């Protein structure tokens, strides 16, 4: 079964389940019962990218069940966080690392930063998400990186939002786009891969040369692009087009300071304009608390965390047992055809493509 068909089936299943009954936080028994009888709380260090978030109730569920105190080390965007994990692999900064995605996965595995762990929760996860057969990196979530735009800007200007990647090269879109650096940002790398998947290796650099000529802005991470440079309601910048996620408009509704019925932003989901990411978690070699690290990995794959995650991090659960919030589903529009670059191609060419991009765009 192709990943496209599988993911479409998965999303449909969770949508139907969510619409049938309100999402509820399941009991903490989704993860195995702890065996420790310690009275002093155990400490677990979890290294993440800067976009990681978890609700207080979900975190308390884990800490209470395992008599644990979880400390989160936010280490930058995905590329930056992975660099830190690699540089410190002989003396790891944490027990667990979450956030490496399929665009950077081969680098993490080649550097040997993870210990294998076959979580019992993997039994519930569709095989197409499991990209590492040795279970060093276990899938947690997925999402589509897409162009997002500020509806109000385009309405005010009487300008049609971009409908394709080629549209971004037109004079009327000059100075409107902000993207992330693919060397430091996983959404940035995903968007670069979308352009490679669409234009091919022989054409993607010409496209980027055109973006440079059309005054594209490059920043280091998603937060800077979306919250500082983007003019949508969550941002206060001058640029009305940003690289983000197809789920971002739903979050604009869910987290609006004043309740709204319609998202002020929209995602461009035309064929070959988006790229699908899968994010992973792994136990770092040299973890000082291997047993508790395993419990945390189990927890991240369980319905308790998987149902909490979409409303915290703009991503979809890989566990089909998790339910999506009906409001989230209501404002969600998925691309029918994402740009395709095979994992083997990414592994073989990622550094070359980033270097070529850097030469064209930043120098």
Can you summarize the main beta sheet? 11 strands, mixed
Number of helices: 14
List the domain count as a whole number: 2
The CATH C-level class name of the largest domain = Alpha Beta
Structural class designation: alpha/beta
User: What is the averaged pLDDT score?
Assistant: 87
Shape: globular
Write up this protein:
The chain is an alpha/beta fold. It has two domains: 3-143 and 277-326, D-Maltodextrin-Binding Protein, domain 2 (3-Layer(aba) Sandwich), CATH 3.40.190.10; 144-275 and 334-361, D-Maltodextrin-Binding Protein, domain 2 (3-Layer(aba) Sandwich), CATH 3.40.190.10. It has helices at 3-20, 56-66, 78-87, 105-110, 151-157, 186-199, 204-213, 222-229, 248-254, 290-301, 303-308, 310-313, 326-330, 343-361; strands spanning 42-48, 68-74, 96-101, 114-115, 138-150, 177-180, 217-219, 241-245, 265-267, 275-284, 316-317. Strands 1, 2, 3, 4, 5, 6, 7, 8, 9, 10 and 11 form an eleven-stranded mixed beta sheet that branches. Helix 2 links the parallel strand 1 (42-48) and strand 2. Helix 7 (204-213) runs parallel beside helix 14 (343-361). The longest helix has 19 residues, at 343-361. The N and C termini lie far apart (43 Å). The model is unreliable at 1-36 (pLDDT under 50).
């Amino acid at each position: 079964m192709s990943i496209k068909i599988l993911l479409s089936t998965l999303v449909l299943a969770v949508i139907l389940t969510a619409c049938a009954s309100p999402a509820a936080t399941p009991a903490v028994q989704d993860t195995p019962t702890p065996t420790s009888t310690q009275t002093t709380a155990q400490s677990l260090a979890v290294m993440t990218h800067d976009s990681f978030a978890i609700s207080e109730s979900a975190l308390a569920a884990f800490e209470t069940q395992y008599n644990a105190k979880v400390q989160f080390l936010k280490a930058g965007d995905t590329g930056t966080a992975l660099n830190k994990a690699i540089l410190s692999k002989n003396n790891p900064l944490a027990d667990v690392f979450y956030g490496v995605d399929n665009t950077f996965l081969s680098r993490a595995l080649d550097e040997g930063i993870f210990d294998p762990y076959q979580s019992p929760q993997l039994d519930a996860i569709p095989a197409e998400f499991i990209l590492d057969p040795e279970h060093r990196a276990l899938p947690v979530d997925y999402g589509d990186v897409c162009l997002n735009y500020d509806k109000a800007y385009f309405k005010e200007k009487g300008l049609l939002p971009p409908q394709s990647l080629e549209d971004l090269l037109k004079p009327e879109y000059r100075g409107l786009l902000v993207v992330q650096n693919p060397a430091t940002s996983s959404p940035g790398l995903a968007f670069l891969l979308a352009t490679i998947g669409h234009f091919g290796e022989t054409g993607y650099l010409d496209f980027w040369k055109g973006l440079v000529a059309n005054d594209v802005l490059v920043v280091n991470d998603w937060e800077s692009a979306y919250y500082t440079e983007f003019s949508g309601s969550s941002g206060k910048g001058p640029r009305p087009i940003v690289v983000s996620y197809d789920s971002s408009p739903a979050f604009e509704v869910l987290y609006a300071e004043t309740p709204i019925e319609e998202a002020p932003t929209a995602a461009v989901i035309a064929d070959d304009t988006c790229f699908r990411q899968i994010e992973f978690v792994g136990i770092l070699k040299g973890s000082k608390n291997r047993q508790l690290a395993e419990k945390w990995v189990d927890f991240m794959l369980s319905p308790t965390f998987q149902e909490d995650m979409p409303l915290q991090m703009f991503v979809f659960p890989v566990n089909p047992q998790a339910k999506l919030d009906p409001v989230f589903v209501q404002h969600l529009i998925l691309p029918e055809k994402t740009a395709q670059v095979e994992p083997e191609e990414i592994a073989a060419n990622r550094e070359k493509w980033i270097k070529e991009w850097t030469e064209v765009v930043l120098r």
